Predict the structure of Transporter.
Amino acid sequence: MAQQEQWTSKLTFILAAAGSAIGLGAIWKFPYVAGTSGGGAFFLVFLLFTLLVGFPLLLAEFVIGRSTQKEAISAYRSIAPGWSFIGRIGVFTAFILLSFYSVIGGWILLYFGASITGYVSSVDNYEQLFGTIISNPWTAVGSQLAFILLTIFVVSKGVKAGIEKASKWMMPALFVLFIVLIARSLTLDGAMEGVRFFLQPDFSKLTSEGVLFALGQSFFSLSLGVSVMVTYSSYLSKTESLTRSAASIVFMNIFITVLAGLAIFPAVFSLGFEPTEGPGLLFIVLPSVFAEMPGGMIFFVVFLALFLFATLTSAFSLLEIIVASVSKNSGERRSKAAWIVGLTIFVVGIPSALSNGLLADVTLFDKTIFDLLDYLVSNIMLPIGALLISIFVPLKMKREVLIAELTDGSSRGKKFLALWLLILKYFVPVLILIVFLDALGVFGG
Ligand code: PFF
């Protein structure tokens, strides 16, 4: 690559980074994991982790990326030779993550197809619809392939041309549609029970494993621990405030998580579903809410288009980090790298796509292939990546660099920097270790 590409403005950087963050994590995963892991208590712990761990780590990834202006692997290497393994682990994590992420991306495509052809409005049992849609091996694999092809197509065209344009209006449109959805969901009979489930913490329902899920969820939904945010911020010019950018991304992410919860849980209780439904929760509950609205199916098609877009912008970021590293480190052209990497990810993802049908009986630790990979990435690999980054920054980065990246030179800025470093150095690693050990049962119970 000749010249390092740059975002055209701060807004496009924020939109792209927010685009990476906001996706299946907040909209699909959060409601179903919160549903199975204790509702309000899970949400509260997730919120605390996002603010106290996620925000400082997001800033850490930004600082690494912008100060080096390099992609994930070279960024670490250029600061401290011998530490590029953090970037390599990230690239590997992105690879596995995208392999199962694209399966859900495929489900959205299938729902989109089924709703524009009128098929969704012709059925009234959405649980059955979901079961049929995901268990057919041809549609499962075909839709996963279609999703990957869309992702490859955009990434192969380069950062600026590909990712920037559409983010500008799609994301706000998604917010607006969620508000409409919530208005309907909250006015259903018995909606308050769902609001209570979501917002009233009952800690007796939260297990040690639930706490680990909340940690994993806060990393997953902020795209942390993979060095995606390192790569994205490497395209950012030196004049923007990293702290403000990170704060707005964290805020938007929490906002959309709350919107998703408020859209789904009232409807779950009002329409007689179970919050513990699992990965199908959104796909079963939302069509039911839309069916309760005048012109609901049209809204549903629009919702799916925006949801698909949000999911694609996250997928772009995952493929982008791998392609940026591969093309930089192997000298391969970026478009060729995008095709080779993307198609390999598709092949690796096939067992995940089939794990809701043909391979449903293939399980390990009581989990299907899909569930196992999701568990491994969200609850083990992302926290490990995050742990390494929190150790790396205070240990290996020069103070002058941190001051230049994060402060305006004022004493207030330096105080903020000192606090941030303390959090990264002690609080984040210790917390991650405690949550790990607790989930393993080390502290009993
Ligand atoms: N944050 C994305 C989502 O919530 O859908 C998923 C993700 C993207 C995780 C990129 C990690 C990552 F590096």
